[in-house]
Amino acid sequence: MTNVRFRLEDVLLLLLTVALAAGARVGYLIRYADHAANAGPLLVQDVQPEQEALIGNVKDHRWFGALAPFAAVEERTAHTAPGYPWLLGELNRLPLEPGAMAPLVRWIQCGLGALTAAFYFLFAWRAFRSRLVAVLAGLFCALHPFWIVATAALADSVLASFLLAASVFLGCRGGQVGGALTSLLYGLSLAALALVRAALLPFAVVALLWFLFRCRRLPTGWQASLLAFLGFITGLAPWGLRNYEHFQDAFPIVDTTYLHLWMGNNVQATGGPLSESAMLHALAERRDEDTVSTAQLLAGMDQPQRYRFLAESVVDEVQRDSLATMQRRLWAGLYFVFGEDWFTQRKLWRDAPAAGETEGALVPGWPYPVLLTGSLLVLLVLSLLGWRWTYAWRQEAMPASLAVFWIPLPYLLSHAEALSGPRLPLDGVLLCYSAFALCCLVPGVGRSLREGEPIRPPSGLG
User: Fold this and answer.
1) Please, are residues 390 and 194 in contact by the beta-carbon 8 Å criterion?
2) How many CB atoms lie within 10 A of CB 110?
3) How far is it, in rounded angstroms, from Cα 114 to Cα 138?
4) How far apart are CA 324 and CA 308, in angstroms?
């Protein structure tokens, strides 16, 4: 395959991808979400129950606090990633008319969704040296029904998907040509991704380590690696220092690692979400005491100590019943892909008109439920083929390959959710693999794509 140059036609295709992605999301908000006034009739991601309290406390008191799990009263907290609630709390401080903040966030999410499709277009173009793969990847991301529906929800999946797309593209570009600004932005994007969704911190750390290792091959690799490292540390440092100041304990983002491990590893665990009362009951049963005493014990501890207290119970449960532990891991993996509701209600979405915010919303007809189910089926089949066929491009596409393994891992070890929220950011990578698989089926193109000729980095866009 010859060296690919980013030409005027590529720029036009990129702009068309952005326009198509923005148009699809704007159309959904206008038609089904009352011009962005509500969350629409369908949900594909659960919203944190304490998110409203976090946003309100940031807005009114610049205080990141809420009623954390097992706490008796609202407290300064680090039990959840701060990125999304903090941003919404700061937006609430703007001099807006009453009720204008939520529509503003949804319109912003339209723009982020369009840029997400653009980043995957650029990633596919640079990683696979193919305009056809780039166009298909951008098209798939622009019209992905899960992402379109998620645009109307006040949840972190759109922002997390955007930051993952930026990280994957910047890592791919930086690993090929270096660059001071690219490397710095790569480290910052990984830090921002972890701050928006704490479960993606392992991926962020591994992706940074890969980049540092990759920079050994670049002429000015020491500079690129140093800037990426500084960007990552600079992004995480303020929140880590805040946690140390208030809790006298060192943890980068959240203190609830053992809480989530306990949610996925107790006698009542299913691999999906579990209520606080169910977790408390399971803990009390293991300790041979009543639930009230256990609740009082936990409520009397400071927050980091409270969740570390669960560590011994997690280890004991894993050792006591290793078979059940493996079964829960299997269910957690299935729930990560499909969501627990698929196995209990045979639905990949949740109908939202019953919620007060979305009463009276126009319910989509058959296309959206069919598209959600069909797109996930096609996504899983084609992405598996694409992942296998991109072996020859593994060095160029390494950030995406790391995401495929490291993003699901924390959920497999702990628990997934009722809907597709944990999987949604990863869908962009899977869509790129799906586009690659389809291109491999095109006569005259597929063989050269699968063989992956060793070529120089593309000129332009650099």
Assistant:
1) no
2) 23
3) 10
4) 23
- SS3 assignment, position 254: coil
Total-model pTM: 0.93
| Residue of higher predicted confidence among 462 and 436 | 436
Rama region for 459: left / alpha / beta (φ>0; ψ in -120 to 50; rest): beta
> Mind giving me the DSSP string for 108-145?
HHHHHHHHHHHHHHHHHHHHH--HHHHHHHHHHHHH-H
449 vs 440: CA distance, rounded Å = 6
Structure tokens at 126: 């640079």
Residue 326, burial from CB neighbour count under 10 angstroms (0-12, 13-18, 19+): exposed
DSSP percent split of the chain into helix, strand, coil, nearest 5? 70, 0, 30
Buried b (16+ CB within 10 A) or exposed e, 64-96: bbbbbbbbeeeeebbbbbbbbbbbbbebbeeee
Q: Which amino acid is at 127?
A: A
What's the rounded mean pLDDT across residues 31-49? 90
% pLDDT > 90, the chain: 76
pLDDT in tens, 386-417: 999 999 898 889 999 999 999 999 999 999 99
Residue 332 has pLDDT above 70, yes or no: yes
Q: Is the confidence at residue 21, as pLDDT, over 90?
A: yes
Phi first, then psi, for residue 354 (nearest 5°) are -70, -25
Name the residue ranges covered by the structural domains of the chain: 8-451
For the residues of 82-107, what is the DSSP string, one character each?
-HHHHHHHHHHTS---TT-HHHHHHH
Q: Are strands 65-66 and 42-43 parallel, antiparallel or unpaired?
A: unpaired
pLDDT at 6: 79
Closest-CA residue to 175 (of 130, 132, 201, 207) = 207
Taking only the tens place, the pLDDT of each residue in 424-452 is 999 999 999 999 999 999 888 888 888 87
Instruction: Name the 3-class secondary structure at 74.
Output: coil
**Quick check: helix, strand or coil at residue 255?**
coil
Whats the size of the chain, residue-wise? 462
Give yes or no for a contact between 372 and 420, defined as CB atoms under 8 angstroms apart.
Answer: no
Sequence-distant (6+) residues with CB within 8 A of 419 are: 43, 44, 45, 46, 339, 340, 341, 348, 349, 350
CB atoms within 10 A of CB 226: 17
